[in-house]
Design a protein that fits this description.
heterodimer; A: 222 residues; alpha/beta; Rossmann fold; 38% helix; B: 133 residues; hypothetical protein PF0899 fold; 4 helices
């Protein structure tokens, strides 16, 4: 019997990052702008994505990857809007990872896509450690989650490139101060743009949509 | 909880490395886990044991070394929130994520970048072989 110590140095998250990098290169090659939409269950991810699709689908070719424990329900909402949608069932898993996206990308006609919206599985914890290869990481939080939710889940806000506080029209009813939520986000991430939205306030939705369009124009001018 | 899928990846890596080195048994698996990852060491260890049942890693000790958060600022400042600091401050113990995420550079006041504490590394394994390679 002989004992050996074998040094491995295999970083599980870096392995995912590498795959995400590969996805990103593929998307760049086809000039597809991709958005990873994260947020808790009921924060309004699906609704805000629907609004963006409705407004952008005449101008741009859009595809969606809908990730969920059971993805078909959200996927059918997107298909109703006439955009190709790949449901990714994660089963018991609480997040999408780069490997699942790599597989889903094979099913998308990237030649005929300008914008890829990825709806992540609903929670503020698990998606944080897993990059997908996206160009824009968005986190959506609703006022109904309470105004201490931000500091309880700091890493997702720290790593986001756009933060949305949604359902601000009912903030008063749930006794939440949306401005406090904005301040909390900025305390964690000084440079992140923060938008306050409500699906009943078209102007606020326009701001969200303009962020997507900005990214689309940037990648198309490359 | 996503420990099971992470444990699957670790288990595959451990097993393929052990097999490639002709192991008859895996004695230790040592991991380095960043304090800022959303992974629970006890759950990960439990999942690994479930996966390893009946195989050569069945009785392996699963050792998790925690890696403290480290930070870096544009001005050149680098710093680490060390394990002793974390252990001795009840606030740090419970609010570490928020504390580190919001941390500003003590020299220039800008927001510091997190450079360490988000990793999950299979550092090494100790194996037993029947004969010398």
């Amino acid at each position: 019997m002989l004992m050996h110590v074998i040094h491995m140095g295999h970083d599980v998250f870096k392995a995912n990052d590498k795959l995400a990098e590969k996805n990103r290169k593929k998307l760049d090659k086809y000039q597809v702008f991709s958005v990873n939409v994260m947020g808790a269950i009921g924060s309004g991810k699906t609704t805000l994505i629907e609004e963006a699709i409705k407004h952008l689908k005449e101008k741009y070719k859009i595809a969606v990857i809908a990730g969920d424990v059971i993805a078909e329900m959200d996927a059918s909402r997107f298909r109703k809007l006439g955009v190709p949608t790949i449901p990714v069932n994660t089963g018991k898993e609480c997040h999408l990872d780069a490997k699942l996206i790599e597989k889903a990308l094979d099913e998308i006609d990237l030649d005929n896509t300008d914008l890829l919206i990825i709806e992540n599985v609903g929670n503020l914890i698990c998606p944080v450690d897993f990059k997908l290869g996206e160009h824009l990481r968005v986190v959506i939080v609703s006022v109904t989650e309470g105004d201490d939710i931000i500091l309880k889940h700091p890493m997702i806000f720290k790593t986001a490139e756009l933060a949305i506080i949604n359902k601000v029209d009912i903030a008063h009813a749930v006794d939440v101060n949306a401005e406090k939520m904005r301040d909390d986000i900025l305390s964690l991430n000084h440079d992140v743009p923060v938008i306050l939205t409500s699906k009943h306030d078209w102007e606020s939705l326009e701001t969200w949509i303009s962020f997507i369009e900005l990214g689309l124009k940037k990648i198309q001018n490359k | 909880m996503h420990e099971f899928s992470i444990a699957c990846e670790i288990f595959e890596q451990v097993l393929s490395t052990a097999t490639a080195h002709g192991a008859s048994e895996v004695k230790h698996v040592t991991l380095q886990m960043g304090r800022l990852t959303h992974t629970n060491p006890e759950q990960l260890s439990f999942c690994f044991k479930v996966l390893a049942e009946g195989g050569i890693a069945e009785n392996a000790d699963f050792i998790v070394e925690m890696v403290p958060p480290s930070l870096e600022c544009e001005c050149g400042y680098t710093g680490t929130v060390d394990e002793k600091q974390i252990r001795e401050s009840s606030e740090l113990k419970s609010e570490l994520l928020a504390y580190v995420a919001a941390m500003e550079c003590p020299i220039c006041g800008k927001q510091a970048h997190i450079t360490g504490g988000r990793e999950l590394i299979v550092k090494s394994i100790e194996i037993e072989t029947e004969k010398e390679d």
